[in-house]
Design brief:
54% of the residues lie in helices and 7% in strands. It is mainly alpha-helical. The structure holds adenosine monophosphate and tryptophan (TRP).
Length: 329
């Protein structure tokens, strides 16, 4: 079975875009791949965090992953700091990454160009830590958004460099870029991605929104004056986005099917159907979420996960340190 690894940086509340674009797929992947999903808490602190908020986000993130169907019996779910080899190999990777390479990483460059002050050294070197995250597990595939592709390419370069210098140490991973169409747009401005940085808070449905709020957000979603339910992202971006949501939450129901059902009906009827589906999904996730919080499932999942991950990561770290000549015995 091929291995897949993904790191999640929970710097905010998870939303419907995260669910449709990422989480739902991870749940499918866990049957096809040996899946490693970790909470990247070392990456979180590359920018300032409020400790209480970070703590709550980390816990919610694990709970929601489980609530959405990630199964600790199939997938290895763990907290990055529970596997110390990440920080250790991260340092070693940092020593094998050139400053010229880090200088080219757009995430850091963009922040610097915007004139953001007091950027941390951790933010600058974070691609080297990400390389360690991936290479520790000999991952075949790394599912990431377009913005992370550059980091996976850097990982490949550094892995090849070290393989050439020290012998075969690492598997060289492939990025797996999310399929097109997996871009859910804001309900209040369908030209923008649904995102946690939504200032008005009307366009983003959080997985933990209460059902009344979620319904209201769908019912007041921006549409158009054409009055037809048709999948045409260019001319009817709002309606097409709602159709995308409805389709994704109904086992990828074909658009033609949805168009046929709502032919000759008003947007009100259509929005009600979308709201029903969204609420049904949230209700299921939130029900499991509450159960998970009340049970010991989070601790249990993380304990099993870190156990499994530590075994693999420790063996890889030992191999690397030996190859470099860092060990005495
Ligand atoms: P982020 O919330 O930006 O850290 O992204 C976490 C994951 O969710 C990534 O795999 C993204 O590709 C995915 N994601 C975030 N926002 C959306 C969206 N609006 N539509 C689809 N996928 C998204
Ligand atoms: N850098 C990723 C992000 O910002 C999170 C991440 C950290 C990651 N380590 C990883 C993703 C390893 C994939 C593989 O979203």
């Amino acid at each position: 079975m091929k291995r897949m690894l993904s790191g999640i940086k929970p710097t905010g509340q998870l939303h419907l875009g995260n669910y449709i674009g990422a989480l739902k797929h991870f749940v499918e992947y866990q049957d096809e791949y040996e899946m490693y999903a970790f909470i990247a808490n070392l990456h979180c602190i590359t920018v300032p965090q409020d400790p209480q908020e970070l703590h709550a986000n980390l816990r919610d993130c694990v709970a929601l992953y489980l609530a959405c169907g990630l199964d600790p019996k199939k997938a290895t779910i763990f907290l990055q700091t529970d596997v110390r080899a990440h920080a250790q190999l991260g340092y070693i990777m940092c020593c094998h990454t050139y400053m010229g390479e880090l200088n080219r990483m757009t995430q850091f460059k963009d922040k610097q160009a915007k004139g953001e002050r007091n950027l941390s050294g951790g933010l600058y070197t974070y691609p080297a830590l990400m390389a360690a995250d991936i290479l520790l597990y000999d991952s075949d595939y790394v599912p990431v958004g377009e913005d992370q592709k550059q980091h996976v390419e850097l990982t490949r370069d550094v892995a090849e460099r070290m393989n050439n210098r020290y012998g075969d140490l690492f598997k060289v991973p492939e990025p797996l870029i999310a399929k097109v169409g997996a871009r859910i747009m804001s309900l209040s401005d369908p030209s923008k991605k649904m995102s946690k940085s939504d200032e008005t808070n009307k366009g983003c449905i959080y997985l933990l929104d209460d059902l009344k709020t979620a319904r209201k957000k769908v019912m007041s979603a921006v549409t158009d004056s054409l009055g037809q339910v048709k999948f045409d992202p260019e001319n009817q971006p709002g309606i097409s986005n709602l159709m995308q949501i409805l389709s994704s939450l109904s086992n990828d129901r074909p658009m033609a099917d949805i168009e046929a059902e709502f032919a000759g009906k008003g947007y009100g009827d259509f929005k009600r159907a979308v709201a029903d589906k969204v609420c049904e999904t949230l209700e299921m996730i939130q029900g499991r979420y509450q159960e998970i919080l009340a049970s010991g499932e989070i601790n249990e999942a993380l304990a099993i996960g870190s156990d499994r991950a530590n075994k693999i990561a420790d063996a890889k770290l030992a191999k690397v340190q030996k190859a470099i000549g860092m060990e005495i015995i």
